[in-house]
Each structure stands twice: as structure tokens, then as C-alpha cells.
Amino acid sequence: MTAAAVLLAMVGWVAFAVTAPRLARRLPPAAATLALATGSVVIAASSIIVVAMLAAPWIAQLPEVAELGHWSAPKLRSGSPIPVAAAAGCATLVGAAFVRLALTGWRRAAAIAAVHRCCQHLPATDANLVIVDSEQLDAFATPLPSGRIVVTTGLLRALSADERRALLAHERAHLEHHHAWWVLATDLAAATNPLLRPSARAVRHGVERWADEQAARTVGDRALTARTIARVALLIKSNQQVPVMAATGGDVPDRVRALLTAPPRRRLLPVLGMAVMLTLSLSAGVDVHSRTDTVFDHAAVSQAHCGPRHGNC
What we know:
Elements: H1 3-24, H2 29-61, H3 63-66, H4 73-79, H5 84-119, E1 129-132, E2 139-141, E3 149-152, H6 153-158, H7 161-176, H8 179-192, H9 197-219, H10 222-235, E4 245-246, H11 252-259, H12 269-298
Parallel strand pairs: 1-3
Antiparallel strand pairs: 2-3, 2-4
């Protein structure tokens, strides 16, 4: 286990966290969302594994843990290059990451379950559209499975026929491309590694841009889609407490500006840049894992020498 491998992994994490959201803005929304969400999950997993590997030799020296393994605690102590204070700090970071991950996962799961309980008994059309007779102005898509597009009669009356078509195309895109789950994956990654919070915000914006672009293709009018998004944003106050994909999410002025320009082009360099950062992190993580395994191999003792008389096993 070398300091160079750990430093290389950290460089990859920080580089992705700082530059990936900016690079993603140069990609079409669908590609940006997929690249950011996938990369965030990879970086989160890599960071947890590396930090856990740094803590593992120290944790394995604890008497309660050492009794479960076939290794010598003194050999681990002498063979581990990680200072005790650093290893203990890494163990604390891993524990905190899992606590944040569990809390975030529980809250999101509870919110998704609440949304489904509210909507599962509502009658829907063949297109999974639920029209709620209410003067409240609202529209959103619930996550799959059993995803629904929920729109109130108040909002439908406030829009023209063409605007209604653009709105429904936007919400349908959220269902078809499972946007809620991409957002959830990135939120969980950010809970594991706080450096990824900008990526999580970028993915939330990216799925809205993705739905905007699909709606514009469906109705064949980018200006109409931009006008619809702006009007709906003025009519609806988005509720951030539930995991729904609403037309008012993301940076609405930026979304409108993007729709009033030409569709984004495919670019290779941003994707290559993110791939290099992910490769850097993964290769360094593999090296740290391999060197940690070597430390444990050197500290291994045979099964025959393990027993009540051998507290070092």
C-alpha cells in the first residue's frame, strides 16, 4: 500500500467532483445524465473501498476482530504502513458514510412509498395519466414501477392545448427513461461521498433538460416547449420533499435558454475526460486493495496454530 496510490485515488475523486458537472454541460442532456450518474456511483464506491482498505489493518488488530480471522495481530501491527491515528480516522469516515447512506436511503424509500400510496388507487388512462379534479396547479411523474403522470384540472385549464401536449410529453419522458432512479442513485452516491453533491445537483438539472429535449422533439416546437416550461414554473411552486419529477425542477431560466437555441451536439472530449478520471480512481483503488491484501497475507497464520492459547491468531 503506497501513499502514491492513495494520493492518486484522491486526485481522481476531487477532479471528478470539480470538473465533471462542468464537462457534462457540454454534452446532450441524456449523455450528461448517464455519465454523471454512473461516474458518481463509481467514485462513491471507489472512495469507500479505498478508505475502508486503509482502516482494515487497524480494525483487524482489535481483539474481537482478530479472533475471527486467521492472522496475527502483532504481524499486522508491524506490517501495516498506516499510522494508527490515520487508520482510526478512516474507520470513522467509513462509518459516517454508511450512516449517511442508510439515512438517505431510508428517507428516499419512505418518500417513494408515500407517493405510491397516494397515487396507486387513483384511476389512470392507458397512458398512465391521472387527472385530479383540483384547483391546485400541479403536475408531476411518480417513479416506476407503477409510475403515473399526475396533473390537476386547474393546471390543465391554465394551459393551451399545445402547452398541455408539451407538458405531458415532458412528464412522459421522466417515466420512459426512469429519471427518478438516476437521481436517486446520484443522491445516494453524494450521501456516501459529499464531494459528489455538485454532481447530484447537476443530475437533477440534467434529467429536466433531458425531458425538455424529448418534449421539444415530440411537439416539434422548441419555442413552444420553452414557453410551456416557463409558464408552468410560474404557476407551480415545486415541492422538494417528495421524489417526483416535476416540470419545474432544475434551473428553469437555463432550461428555457437552452430550448431557445439549437439542440446540443454530441461531443467526445468531455466523455473521454470523465473516463480518464474514473480510470485513474479505479486503478488506484485496485492498487490499494491489492496492497492491503498483501499486508494480510504476510500476517496470515496457519489454522493449526489458532486456538485459545494463541491470542495472536
